[in-house]
Amino acid sequence: MSWESANAPRRTTTIALNLSPMTPPIPATTHTHFQLQNSIEKLIRQNEELLRKNASLQKQGRVIVEEKMEVLKRLEKTEESNIELKKLVKETDRACKDMQIANQDNNEPRFTLSELREVIKEKNILKGRVMELEEELEAFKPGAKREIMRLDDEEDEQADRLAA
């Protein structure tokens, strides 16, 4: 549509529309006016519908953003728990390895054969000494006093014989 045709004087022609037998004929401009009015009303209804849809979608968008934030928080907590569990697993692995090493050490001899012989020899010497001390202790008991005196007398006699 050019500028000239848009600004040209309009001709009004009457087109007879037979809407009903009793209705007088409507001029074409009036018909165009009704069509425009209907189109405007239709566009207003569509606009209202689109505005409702837009508001609904915005609400849904906010809900989705909130859910995303909650999911991210849970993910962060899960990652923290995962890190803690990994640390615990590492500590447990170290403890298991330490126990395995300790068990391996228990299976190996801790002393050489010569060291064991020396310990047994020392034990036997100490055992003999304990027996000697027990005998002396028996000698010092009240019922054994006469025997000690007799042993002392015998020792004195032997010493006298040796001296003579």
TrEMBL record:
Keywords: Coiled coil. InterPro entries: RH2 (IPR034744), RILP_dimer (IPR021563). It holds the Pfam family RILP. The keyword Cell membrane does not apply. It comes from Caenorhabditis japonica. SUPFAM superfamilies: RILP dimerisation region. Transmembrane segments: none annotated. Residues 108-164 form the RH2 domain. One of its GO terms (molecular function) is protein dimerization activity. The keyword Coiled coil applies. Residues 33-136 form a coiled coil. This is RH2 domain-containing protein. It comes from the Eukaryota.
